[in-house]
Amino acid sequence: MAGLPMLREILVQSVKKPVTNLFPAVRLPKSITGFLGSVAEGKAAVVPPVETPPAFRGRIVYDRDACNGCGLCLKVCPAHAIEQVVYPPVTVRMTDAEGNVSEKVKKEKRVRIYVSSCIFCGQCTDICSRDALRMGDAFLIATEDRFAEEQIVE
Ligand code: SF4
Ligand code: SF4
């Protein structure tokens, strides 16, 4: 009677809620653009996405204050999604404990990440000794403009 367990499973599955997340809408809209327009006007609502699991690799997050511009992340990035940015030198004035003032010319180096080129491998976050890079949770990042503001992290 191999058919009985299967019949039971069919009955169970037919009354169970779907496991998949009905994102962004319960029913597929005729036009996604139209649907998003209705959402913007408050006439429709987006079914929220599921929570991302731990160690999810979404859009990269950059802490530029922690970065020292060492450039290691550029070297390991297989997608060449990171470039170094060198800012014009600035003169920094320093005063020591005895009150002596000295000046030092500092060249600030940081990085810029092009999210549209990123393949979310996490190599750059692994190599960064300053924890200046981490894989974030954001994944709704599709766009028609690869140079849009939200596609460039710096
Ligand atoms: S993000 Fe990290 S690895 Fe990349 S340049 Fe800055 S400190 Fe170096
Ligand atoms: S996650 Fe991978 S592809 Fe994306 S910027 Fe880092 S090293 Fe490059």
Automatic annotation (TrEMBL):
Keywords carried by this UniProt record: 4Fe-4S, Iron, Iron-sulfur, Metal-binding
A matching Pfam family: Fer4_10
Domain 4Fe-4S ferredoxin-type: 58-87, 109-138
Name by which UniProt lists this protein: 4Fe-4S binding protein
